[in-house]
What does this fold into?
Amino acid sequence: MSPMIKSIHKKFPPQFALFIFAIGLLAFLSGCSTFKKTFNLTSIDENGNEIKSDLDVPAKTLLVNGMDDYNVGKYFTAITSFQEILNRHPFSPEAPLAELKAADCSYFLEHYSEALVLYEEFANRHPTNESIPYVLFQKGMCNFKQIDRVDRDTAGATKAIDFFKQLLKSYPTSPYTAEAKARIAAAGEFLADHEFFVAEYYVRAEKYDQAKVRLKYLLAKYPEKAIAGQAKDLLARLEAGDPPRSILTSWLPKFNLTTWSFTGQSAAENSSRTD
It folds into this structure.
C-alpha cells in the first residue's frame, strides 16, 4: 500500500468510505430517468398482471374518465382526474380543458370561493381562449351564488353585477348575454331590498333622518326595482312627520332569488370544450 493511500486510509475510516459510496449511489439512482425500467420495479396483482401507476395513465385517458364522471354529476371523482392531468401532464393538449372542468367541479360542489380562484387562474393562463366569455360568466355566478339574506353582506351581489357587466361589455353577443342580464336584474333587486331593510331598521330604532337618507339613496339608485313603491310610501310618511309607530315586522327575512337559467341549463352544463 502506497504512503498516499495509507494516509487517506488513516484520515478516512472504512465507515466514511461506505457513506460516500451510498451518497453517490443515491444521487445516481435519483437522477436516472430509467430507474424504474432498469430495475423492473412494477406492481403485480393476484393474477400476475402488471398494475400501472398513475404515471403510466395517459392524459387523454384521464380526461375521458373525468368527463364520464362529470357528465353524470360525479364531480368529486371527476375533479380528481382533472387534477391528475394538471399534476402529471401540465403541458399536454388536455390540460386547458382539465383546468376549466376542475373549476366547474368546484362550482357544482358549491365550493364557490375555490371555483372563483380556479376560473381566475384559467383566465390568466389562457387570456385568448374561446371559453373566456363563459369563464367571466362563471366568475359572476360564483359571487351570485353567495348572495344570502338581505340583512347580511352585499359583496356577493355587487361583485356579481361587476363581472356580468364586464361580460356584456367585452362580449355583448356571447351565448351568456341573456342570462347575465337576468342575473344583474336579480342581484339589483337584492341590493334594493337590502337598502329597504336598513331603512326599516332605522325606523324601528327611531332614527328617522338616517332612514330617510337610505330611502332616498334606494330611490335614486334603484328607481325601477319592485321595492321602490314601498320605499316611496315610507319616505313620504317620514317626511310628513308621521312615521310608523307600531313595531315593524321584518319585510323580507330571507330573500329568495328567482332561479334564472339559459336555455334550461346552467352555463357550466352548456360548456364542455376548450382549445
In short: The chain has two domains: 51-129, 134-275.
